[in-house]
């Protein structure tokens, strides 16, 4: 058995034991095959992690950058309860259509709103309009734009807001300071920005599992 296969089996063990993924969530995850980017949605244990973060923080107003099929948004909307106000940004109408159907099926369509278009434009419009601040922000879109998304997330946050940025380890490539990959450059700049802002407290964790070697960065706005 390869190391990657073992990682996936360990993930599956914990998911089977601890993660309550019902048929709607399973169907939503599988429906990513109908989007333009099949299979890049978060794993079930990451969905459960986001759900726990929402419950631990008491978040009600949630911003997500990167909708895809709506899998992570459903986890968060359910955790936040009937009073949830989830705004999720999606560039592609094809993906948004899949997500809308999944939100209806999951019974959360009344608490999740998709902002269609470039996420940078969507978050800037919220800033310009003086939108109510968010309790939790989940960033999981194009990695080259992570600095833009972080800057907007901070502007749309209040003291105590939690920001989660997914896929920041990049299979270990994040340490390559000579990389010309825009996703690595964007991720490294993201980390620098967090380190340079005294109002942000953060850590980053590596993960291995069915999604390979990656990880996420967790930020609290002071």
Report on this model:
The chain has 222 residues and is an alpha/beta fold. The protein has one domain (3-221): Vaccinia Virus protein VP39 (Rossmann fold), CATH 3.40.50. The chain contains 8 helices and 7 strands; from the N terminus they run αααβαβαβαβαβαββ. The chain has helices spanning 3-18, 23-30, 44-57, 71-80, 93-106, 119-128, 146-155, 182-196, and strands at 61-65, 85-90, 112-116, 134-139, 157-166, 200-209, 212-221. Strands 3-2-1-4-5-7-6 form a 7-stranded mixed beta sheet, with helices on both faces. The chain is globular. The N and C termini lie far apart (45 Å). The mean pLDDT is 97.
Please specify the SSE layout and strand pairing.
Elements: H1 3-18, H2 23-30, H3 44-57, E1 61-65, H4 71-80, E2 85-90, H5 93-106, E3 112-116, H6 119-128, E4 134-139, H7 146-155, E5 157-166, H8 182-196, E6 200-209, E7 212-221
Parallel strand pairs: 1-2, 1-4, 2-3, 4-5
Antiparallel strand pairs: 5-7, 6-7
Helix pairs in contact: 2-5, 3-4, 6-7
